[in-house]
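Need a sequence for this fold. Nothing fancy.
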């Protein structure tokens, strides 16, 4: 593609999970950067996406999709093929977790966590990468839970470990393309995560979300880390400490420590 033709393509940011939480905050902060012509807001709830679109100065396109649905992923691929955008940002913020052990979390919740947090994220990344070029940005929302195994959040933590490992390997594969991939690994964030996480038989297995951060702070630090070409954005001293602990402390000790903390 020649330079003139590429210049005519719309510069687009794609944000999944954009109806609330970190996805909503990413949409707001990318909007303020004024680096794209459109923001595609991806989530399941049409009314919520319409409300978000009204908050932004950049033209925003609601894309109603369930990322666990192969049909909806195929529809997004077709939309990309039809519009052939120059994707400048891909933020995969769609995801959820549940508190509880293997006996109290339903099979449906387990399957949905794996499908959305892992497969949906990979499917969106693979769908979007052909439309990205030098200078583009990928932020994959993982969690500090990726650094250590967490009993009573075992599936959620495992899915986020997948996101971290996947993003680091993808970053290596993208070497030389000028596309920057960063895994965002915060600790607790003040979003709707807790409400959803407690909707299970073991909803109170984690008693308090200690040290929760503002979404605006986490997103600002994630975008800065990506701009600096960092592989991982920890976003807080606590998350940075957990990253170090996960590297040097045996898992049996970290799990025992977590079992105390979750009861506080």
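Here you go.
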């Amino acid at each position: 593609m020649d330079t003139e033709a590429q210049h005519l393509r719309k510069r687009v940011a794609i944000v999944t999970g954009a109806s609330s939480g970190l996805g909503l905050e990413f949409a707001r902060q990318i909007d303020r950067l004024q680096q794209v012509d459109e923001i595609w807001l991806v989530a399941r709830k049409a009314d919520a996406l319409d409300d978000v679109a009204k908050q932004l100065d950049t033209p925003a396109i609601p894309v109603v999709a369930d990322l666990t649905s192969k049909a909806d992923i195929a529809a997004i691929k077709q939309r990309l093929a039809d519009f052939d955008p120059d994707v400048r940002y891909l933020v995969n913020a769609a995801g959820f977790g549940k508190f509880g052990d293997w006996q109290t979390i339903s099979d449906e919740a387990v399957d949905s966590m794996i499908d959305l947090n892992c497969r949906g994220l990979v499917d969106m990344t693979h769908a979007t990468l052909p439309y990205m070029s030098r200078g583009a940005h990928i932020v994959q929302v993982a969690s500090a839970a990726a650094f250590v195994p967490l009993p009573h959040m075992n599936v959620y933590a495992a899915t986020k470990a997948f996101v971290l490992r996947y993003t680091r390997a993808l970053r290596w594969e993208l070497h030389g393309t000028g596309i920057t991939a960063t895994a965002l690994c915060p600790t607790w964030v003040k979003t709707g995560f807790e409400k959803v996480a407690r909707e299970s038989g073991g909803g109170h297995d984690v008693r308090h979300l200690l040290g929760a951060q503002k979404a605006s702070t986490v997103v600002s630090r994630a975008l800065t880390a990506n701009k600096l070409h960092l592989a991982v954005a920890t976003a807080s001293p606590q998350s940075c400490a957990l990253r170090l602990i996960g590297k040097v402390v045996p898992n049996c000790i970290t799990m025992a420590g977590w079992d105390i903390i979750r009861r506080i």
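For context: The two ends are 58 Å apart (CA to CA).
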